[in-house]
Amino acid sequence: MATIYLLLGANLGDRLSTMQRAATLVGERVGAVTKGSSVYQTAPWGVEEQPAFLNQALAVETALAPEEVLRHLLDIEYELGRVRYERWGARDIDIDMLYYSDLVMDTARLTLPHPRLHERRFALVPLAEIAPDFVHPVLGVDNATLLKQCPDEGEVGLFSE
């Protein structure tokens, strides 16, 4: 079994409901969700002229290989309405695999750990909430330290309905 860390994000439609459905589908198809962070409202990153995102990190225990996990995540995104119009653009759902245990890999379809994780406060805040001591296998520092060192100053705050 491997522990994977995922980041859910949405900024279109019923963001919270879509993320909850995504988490349920991850649990059914990828593996047991063992931890979930709080839900955060975050400023857009990359393309700034779009609605605010909701983000949540999940820890999942899986017996699937990384490429199988990716296939399921892409299927879940598609099922929940994800259409890829613009890189970093608005979306109904986004599910990123941040870590697959301490595996390091770089293929045409998948790079682990996520190559820009250390640059994204919207990912590090929820991730550091559920796995502050997990050490990035390439950078050699834990998530709490990555968050402290993160150059991104994007707004990240707890979401309340």
Beta strand %: 25-35%
Radius of gyration (CA) equals: 14 Å
- Quaternary organization: single chain
Distance between the termini: 35 Å
Q: What's the total count of β strands? A: 8
What class would the helix/strand composition place it in?
A: alpha+beta
Written as H for each helix and E for each strand, in order along the chain, the element string is EHEEEHEEEHHE
- Report on the biggest sheet: 6 strands, antiparallel
Low-confidence segments:
none
Number of helices: 4
Please, could you describe this protein's structure?
By secondary structure, the protein is an alpha+beta fold. It is about 30% helix and about 25% strand. It has four helices and eight strands. Strands 1, 2, 3, 4, 5 and 8 form a six-stranded antiparallel beta sheet that branches. Strand 6 (about 105) and strand 7 (about 110) form a beta hairpin. The chain starts with a strand and ends with a strand. The mean pLDDT is about 95.
